[in-house]
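Entry:
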Amino acid sequence: MTFSKHIPLEDLTDLAEQINTSTNREAMLSHLETCANCTKTFDRLQHVVGLMKKDTSEDAPRDVLQRALNIFGAPERVSLLKKIVAALSFDSFTLEPTFGTRSGQSEARQLIFSADENDIDLHISAQENKWVIAGQVFGQGCKEGEVNIEGENVSLSSALSDSCEFTFPPVPS
């Protein structure tokens, strides 16, 4: 095999690591005898591979690496699960009636969910045989956002207002 100009870097790397299984090994060695540019690159690659094989250093402990990343402001990777999962932190339906309350449980319900750095204030109220769902998102990144409801018989979307509020038309139970 002859090379039009130079041996591709990938092939030179394989040759330096001695993992070249192709039949053109002899052609590459022959080319290296006549091409100063490829020989120089091959010598550097052999040197680096040799250093890597002799390297006995260990990785820094995970907490040291994390602290270094935090110092330089590297963004923390957040798992998709952490972005999606919200924990219920308040439910008005579970409150005991206080002294002086004139009526029992209201048909309206307020729920507050916490998801990572955001809170979602959710208001649900009955209207005939349907539910009106409205609320507000508190936290960063809610501007120009969207809230979706997905269910067996419904799929709705509501854009967030400038104050990160949303309202859905009445939906079935």
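The mean pLDDT is 81.
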